[in-house]
Amino acid sequence: MTVTELWFDPSLCFIDGAWVPPAEGQTLPLANPSNGEEIGQIARGTAPDIEAAVQAAEAARDGAWGRMPAADRGRLLARLGRLVQDRAEDLARIEAQDVGKPLKQARADALALARYMEFYGGAADKLHGETIPYMDGYTVYTLREAHGVTGHIVPWNYPMQIIGRSVGAALATGNACVLKPAEDACLTALAFAALAQEAGLPAGALNVVPGLGAEAGAALSGHPRVQHISFTGSVGVGAAIQAAAAPNVVPVTLELGGKSPQIVFDDADLGAALPFLVNAGIQNAGQTCSASSRILVQRGVLEEVTARMAERYGALRVGPALDDLEVGPLISARQKGIVESFLARGSDLTVAAQGDLSAAVDGGHYVAPTLFSGVAADHPLARDEIFGPVQVIIPFDTEEEAIAIANGTDYGLVASVWSRDGARQMRLARQIRAGQVFLNNYGAGGGVELPFGGVGKSGHGREKGFEAMYGFTTLKTVAAYHG
Ligand code: NAD
After folding, report:
1. What separation in Å is there between the alpha carbon of 102 and the centre of ligand 1?
2. Which of 152, 237, 335 has most ligand 1 atoms within 8 Å of CB, for mutation?
3. Is it true that domain 3-256+460-477 has CATH number 3.40.30.10?
4. 143 lines ligand 1 (CB under 6 A)
5. Is 221 touching ligand 1 by the criterion CB < 6 Å?
């Protein structure tokens, strides 16, 4: 499927169950990152479109959707999941052309979206309150209730996965959603809306308004009748969204950046570790919030790990998304510029290996995957999020030093520990500051069931799993005195 064969019109918004042109009639060009060619026009939604979407969501919340029994909501989500699964190949091809991610990675995202709908469809009628022992003559219980209208602001790097975890959990708990996808990649958000329509989701339960962050995004995050904001993206924009939502005193979930470490001890199973060490850094060309961009290696295996990682880097081929090589282009010329400026700041470092750019095509936003070795923990490339296919190897001697380095950035999203020593695994799992710690594996982005989110500048709140459903609900305590 090419983007000229879409089963929906990408220049429209999806509001109140209908495809409508943006109120101000403007569009934005959409480019294919693999070759820079324009592949279509998307709606440039603005404040009036957000207002219409919020009104539609309010009507759904107060109407058919809000009153629907949880089991029926769950069935609808499960049906939507099956439609996503049936169209997974189409969705993957759309995503590959829109985001630039190699097809097999785009396929994994489409299947993850289907799985989120399956998980949250099944979970919809399994969330319940409690009865609480209290004073004589009382019965006290809690009710888990939807916030109402939820806003979802999504980045371009994993549209399908992030829509799945955010919108999936919000719909399962009975919220009505307004989704603002990223201006750089919004096609699968619109495809998802079209499939939701086909699945029979009531009008207004899901609304999609593409547009710029400063226009549609700002209108949504500061909207006084939105009761919860879920944002995934950069730290700066996350802080701006929290500030915009503050006067409305609504909860905000922030899933922000990371500088996630993998820690390799001398006693690690290197054969098991090596694929994870590299893949977690170059997946989606490193444009992954949970990318593992820091590899901490104990001195006893430093030489071997560096050599074996370098060998893998040398075999990485970079090229157009539909060629399905190991690494695709970056999303935009802007992102390429950011990554290249980081590479320039690494000119004082040792390049252990780089990937192969010979399959890259003109006009695409390609950079060579780059592995730096022997990097000091306080170097900017070892501290700042690069958001490109760049990893640094940081040597260490002791466990204490490894923990200090792992915790030595502003972020705390994901970490992993490679060691056969069970007591050490347990110590590090407790002492590392991160939302997720993996022991002898690494799960960049995977795990629909696993609560996910950060500490520090990586954000707050949790998505995925049941935990997300607590976040998308509010708890009411009912205390009845009956004597
Ligand atoms: P971004 O913050 O620039 O944009 C994300 C979204 O916010 C887009 O939809 C954009 O239109 C919107 N936006 C921009 N300005 C806005 C404003 N003023 N008000 C409201 N909305 C606005 O992020 P990006 O460049 O698209 O994504 C890259 C960043 O996202 C990286 O830092 C990465 O680590 C992070 N990220 C985090 C996670 C996670 O789960 N923790 C996942 C993916 C990406």
Report:
1. 21
2. 237
3. no
4. no
5. yes
Distance 258 CA to ligand 1 centre (A): 13
Report CA(11)–ligand 1 centroid distance (Å).
22
User: Ligand 1 mean position to 460 CA, how many Å?
Assistant: 15
Q: Is pLDDT at 361 greater than 80 in this prediction?
A: yes
pLDDT for position 196 = 98
pLDDT at 53 over 90: yes
* Cβ(245) – ligand 1 distance below 6 Å: no
CA 155 from centroid of its chain's CA atoms: 7
Which pair of tokens denotes residue 157?
């790097």
Tell whether ligand 1 has an atom less than 6 A from the beta carbon of residue 242.
no
Does the structure show a pLDDT above 70 at 445?
Answer: no
pLDDT (0 to 100) of residue 5 = 83
Q: Tell me: pLDDT of 421 over 90.
A: yes
pLDDT for the residue 453: 97
Please indicate whether residue 237, judged by its CB atom, sits closer than 6 Å to ligand 1: yes
The reported pLDDT for the residue numbered 301 is: 98
Structure-block tokens of residue 24: 């101000």
- At 1 the pLDDT is 64
Mean pLDDT over 204-231 rounds to 98
* Coil, strand or helix at 174: coil
The whole-number pLDDT of residue 444 equals 58
Checking if the pLDDT of 3 tops 70, the result is no
Query: Which residues are paired to 418 by β-bridges?
Result: 264
Q: Is 387 in the pocket of ligand 1 (CB under 6 A)?
A: yes
**Cα 213 to Cα 299: distance, rounded to the nearest angstrom:** 45
For 246-291, how does the pLDDT look when each residue is reduced to its tens digit (9 = 90+)? Answer: 999 999 999 999 999 999 999 999 999 999 999 999 999 999 999 9
Alpha carbon of 182 to ligand 1 centroid (Å): 8
Does domain 260-447 sit in CATH 3.40.309.10? yes
Q: How far apart are CA 378 and CA 316, in angstroms?
A: 28
| Site to substitute for ligand 1 among 49, 232, 342, most atoms within 8 A of C-beta | 232
193 — pLDDT class (breaks 50, 70, 90)? very high
Mean pLDDT for all residues in the chain: 97
Query: Among all residues, which ones are annotated catalytic?
Result: 255, 289
Q: Return the structure tokens found at 158.
A: 């994993």
**Angle CA 34–39–40, to nearest 5:** 150
Query: Cα–chain-centroid distance for residue 300?
Result: 35
482: three-class secondary structure by DSSP: coil
Q: Is 70 exposed, middle or buried (0-12, 13-18, 19+ CB in 10 A)?
A: middle
- 109: how many CB neighbours lie within 10 A of its CB? 26
How many CA atoms within 13 Å lie on the side-chain side of 361?
Answer: 14
Closest atom of ligand 1 to 258 CA is 34
Phi, psi torsion values for 361, nearest 5 degrees: -115, 160
